[in-house]
Design goal:
Blueprint lengths: L2 H19 L1 E2 L1 H8 L4 H8 L14 H17 L3 E4 L24 H8 E4 L1 H17 L1
């Protein structure tokens, strides 16, 4: 798939996620694109994989393009960036909630790019109002 096709797919998946959930994460779009299998994502979340890029099926150039395109497209739509802390799942010991790494390098800028979710504040408000009206009807 060439870059233009990839960018079109990214836009489609971002729009779908924003409409459905009101927010977008890099990991969700990577799974939507088929670059990251859900099982591999869960392995990473449970700490079985040392960094997320290791289990992605696309190369670093494509990963960089995907992250950049998601960021630029979401900000262009008026979404707000929200840094999210990713901690390991599954540990019963509260002190063992280690932060997860996205990249081999562990560079702060790269980690922040992967960990940032993009939120459509207006859509989130609409979804909350819709859910509130459903709750009052019951």
């Amino acid at each position: 798939m060439n870059n233009n096709e990839l960018i079109k797919k990214i836009h489609t998946y971002v729009n779908t996620r924003l409409y459905k959930d009101g927010c977008v994460s890099i990991a969700d779009i990577l799974m939507d694109l088929g670059c990251l299998k859900k099982e591999k994502y869960e392995d990473w979340r449970f700490g079985k994989v040392d960094y997320l890029e290791r289990v992605c099926t696309c190369n670093l150039h494509e990963l960089s393009l995907i992250c950049k395109e998601i960021r630029e497209y979401c900000l262009g739509l008026g979404c707000k960036g929200s840094y999210t802390v990713y901690k390991r799942w599954g540990s019963r010991n509260r002190s063992d909630k280690r932060l997860l790494r996205f990249s081999k390098s562990g560079s702060a800028d790269i980690e922040k790019a992967y960990a940032t979710h993009y939120v459509d504040i207006k859509r989130v408000k609409q979804l909350k109002e819709k859910n509130a009206s459903v709750d009052t009807e019951i």
